[in-house]
Amino acid sequence: MEMDSTIHEYLKRYFGFDTFKGNQEAIINNIIGGRDTFVLMPTGGGKSLCYQLPAVMKEGTAIVISPLIALMKNQVDAMRNFSTDDDVAHFLNSSLTKTESTRVKKDVLSGKAKLLYVAPESLTKEDNIEFLRNITISFYAIDEAHCISEWGHDFRPEYRRIRPIIDTIGRSPIIALTATATPKVQHDIQKNLGITEADIFKSSFNRPNLYYEIRSKQDVTREIIKYIKNNSGKSGIIYCLSRKKVEEMAEQLKVNGIKALPYHAGMDSATRTANQDKFLMEEADVIVATIAFGMGIDKPDIRFVIHYDIPKSLEGYYQETGRAGRDGGEGNCIAYYSYNDIVKLEKFMQGKPIAEQEIGKQLLLETVSYAESSVCRRKLLLHYFGEEYPRDNCEACDNCLHPKEQFEGSEAVVNVLDTILAVKEKFKADHIANILSGKVTSAIKSYKHHKLEYFGIGEDKDEKFWNMVIRQALIAKLLVKDIENYGLLKLTPKGQDFIENPTSFMLAEDHDYADTSDEENAFGARTAAVDEELFSILKDLRKKISKQKDVPPFVIFQDPSLEDMAIQYPINLDELQNISGVGAGKAQRYGREFVDIIKKYVEEKEIIRPLDMVVRSVVNKSGLKVYVIQSIDMKRPLEDIAEAKGLDMSELLSEIEAIVNSGTRINLDYYINMVIDEERQHDIYSYFREEAESDSLEEAIRELGSEFEEEEIRLMRIKFLSEMGN
Fold first, then answer.
1. 511 to each of 339, 464, 692, how far by Cα in Å?
2. HEC profile of 323-377
3. Which of 148, 223, 283, 712 is the most buried (most CB within 10 A)?
4. 484, pLDDT greater than 80
């Protein structure tokens, strides 16, 4: 027992903890005893301590192989903080200069260094191998070991060469550590490292404090902004698949007053590090990132992880959501799902080797099943990692909190099992679903499966339904997927038994996240109902002002703007500028009375306003509007402006009309005086000034059209609206 007390002494002395977490203690004893060890411990469980502590205690230096330079640096800094001696930990990787790496080697040779972090690619360099042969190695720790497997979510070919190199340097105990591994990946790692006899320590993958939810991908930007505004001051990460989306999203959040920063591999490393630090130091609340972010980020209080795009694999999803709530507090994981995205991801795979495509497709299928299923999300995730979740309701996922209607499905399950046996357990889920729903595909024809007695036995349901039955039979362990062979379905003894003695089997339909038009809708169509009472109050106000100022009512605000106000209830000038057809100019000139009257109305009626109001779209700075306004300021002929931007005259005029309608003043006199003589100008102008009922262009053309060209009328209408309204 003497050993134990020293372990605790070291724990206290070096790391400042009084007790171990989970199975850390057993793992450490195993390593100290010189055994090969395989550690499966979810993010935040304290993996690194498992090799740091024995490294400090054992004779020699521990070699830690880790894939990320930033990660090594963090870990080395952390170790040096624990110890009084800076030489306790070092790293060797491509970021060091010749002089620096010579110094590191000197320190290690002197025996002071207890841990040496090495990148797998540095391990292959001749001079490094030579150097490592001269030191006493206490053990090898291979962190992020899932990188070894093509089935892992972050496969790195250089990881597969670790074992041969270890043999060249000299064998010491091997410790493999990973935070996510399906049974398949686990087997791969052990086989490749040659540690099939290793002792395996597996912690539960369940993170009870995390809440999982999948939402349909509609109006996402607005939804995300609303969510963050309702959780202001909390830290969160938003994951997007493309760098471009990361930039756009970060920009969009900033415009809406959210402290957000982008993070992706395309940025220079100084900016990346700076943004990461600001997030850690709480100068920024939200990081918008590609998957490059978060490896080894030890921020304990990340309160939400939002996936704008669904990840390529469930392991990726588990890793990324796992960064939320590491302190055991609240952690909300929300992913936006649309089948369109899956199709895009499949397209990315084309051009890769066939084997890789096969693997990629299967990983994606798992993601789709997870997203669309209405089974408890925890059950699904843990099942994927080879762990059973015994409870029926986890009370912390959308499917458990809002369960779907269940129905008796034992007959459907038996049909699935019978069909799988009928095709000799040699086919995948899709194929089985097609047989049952009676869908003739080329594969079904070539195997003559349309002649089977089971073909079309369930044709009243589509293949989506049958896929769902298959998935729920997998979770119930009536079936297994033979991953080695492309996911062929086979019956388990439990499944065989079910055919003979079927029992009740409740099923729930999948979610239908029907594909809706993507983002485009986010700032466009507003479908909310107009508050008729407010609308008429605003119309009266507009009439009153139009009398005072002696301008036609439509010059002040057009009807669509008033309607929008009666939907959105803007109560200050900032919000008013988000109303369609209202720009800064109009808001300043006429807005005050409108927002005051709306504010009073909202208070009296105790109206809950749609906070969507706050969503501001990023002004496309390089956009057409700015170009048009600047060119008109420079008095360029409209023909030239149109040509420069590939527009015809009518399109350009529409653009100018939009600019004027939103309250920006535009002076076209230089051009109008060139193309319309003075009297004609006067005639059209006075029509708008005296006769017009509204600013309708159609009406004006009807009234004036016989004598005037449409273009002339439009130009004069722009002049009129600009002078009168703005």
1. 12, 11, 54
2. CCCCCCCCEEEEEEECHHHHHHHHHHHCCCCHHHHHHHHHHHHHHHHHHHCCCCH
3. 148
4. no
Contact 299, 235 (CB under 8 A): yes
Contacts of 535 (CB under 8 A, 6+ apart): 562, 563, 566
Write the DSSP string, 284-324.
Answer: -SEEEE-TTS-TT---TTEEEEEESS--SSHHHHHHHHTTS
Task: Report the sign of the C-alpha dihedral through residues 446, 450, 451, 452, in that order.
Answer: positive
Alpha-carbon span 470 to 491, nearest angstrom: 11
- Domain 210-353+365-375 has what CATH class? alpha beta
How is domain 526-614 classified at the CATH fold level?
A: DNA polymerase; domain 1 (1.10.150)
For tokens 């309701």, name the residue.
393
Q: What is the CATH number of domain 405-508?
A: 1.10.10.10
Spatial CB neighbours of 436, under 8 Å, sequence gap ≥ 6: 415, 416, 419, 454, 456, 457, 458, 459, 461, 463, 466
* CATH code linked to domain 2-202: 3.40.50.300
CB of 95 closer than 8 Å to CB of 122: no
**Confidence band of 292 (pLDDT split at 50, 70, 90):** low
Average pLDDT over residues 7-28: 87
More confident of the two residues 44 and 105: 105
Question: With helix as H, strand as E and coil as C, how does 58-95 read?
Answer: CCCEEEEECCCHHHHHHHHHHHHHHCCCHHHEEEECCC
Asked whether the beta carbons of 318 and 205 are under 8 A apart, the reply is yes
Q: Per-residue pLDDT tens for 403-414?
A: 888 899 999 999
Residues of the chain with pLDDT > 90, as a percent, come to: 39
Task: Say if residues 579 and 615 touch (Cβ distance below 8 Å).
Answer: no
* Chain centre distance of CA 32: 41
Least trusted range by pLDDT, from 129-143, 253-267, 482-496: 482-496
> Which DSSP symbol is given to 684?
H
6 with 169: CB under 8 angstroms? no
Domains 210-353+365-375 and 624-725 belong to one CATH topology: no
- Position 1 scores a pLDDT of 39
pLDDT at position 98: 86
* Start-end of H helices in 402-492: 410-422, 429-437, 442-446, 463-475
Q: What's the rounded mean pLDDT across residues 617-643?
A: 79
Rounded alpha-carbon distances, angstroms, from residue 34 to 48, 137, 191, 198: 17, 12, 19, 11
* Residue 614 pLDDT: 52
User: Would you kindly state where each structural domain of the chain is located, as residue ranges?
Assistant: 2-202, 210-353+365-375, 405-508, 526-614, 624-725
**Which residue from 514, 502, 429 is spatially nearest to 472, judged by alpha carbons?**
429
The pTM for the full model equals 0.66
Instruction: Please provide the distance, in angstroms rounded to a whole number, between the alpha carbons at the two ends of the chain.
Output: 87
- Could you read off the pLDDT of 178-195 as tens digits, one per residue? 988 888 899 999 999 999
**Cβ atoms of residues 278 and 332 within 8 Å:** no
**624-725 maps to CATH 1.20.1250.20:** no
Residues 377 and 211: their CA atoms lie apart, in Å, by 9
Percent of the chain at pLDDT above 70?
93
| Cα–Cα distance, 503 to 283 (Å, whole number) | 57
Contacts for 461 with CB less than 8 Å, ≥ 6 apart: 436, 437
* Mean pLDDT on 658-679: 87
613: Cα separation from own chain's centroid? 24
Do 417 and 479 touch, CB atoms closer than 8 A? yes
Instruction: Sort strands 479-482 and 488-491 into parallel, antiparallel or unpaired.
Output: antiparallel
Residue 630 structure tokens: 């600047």
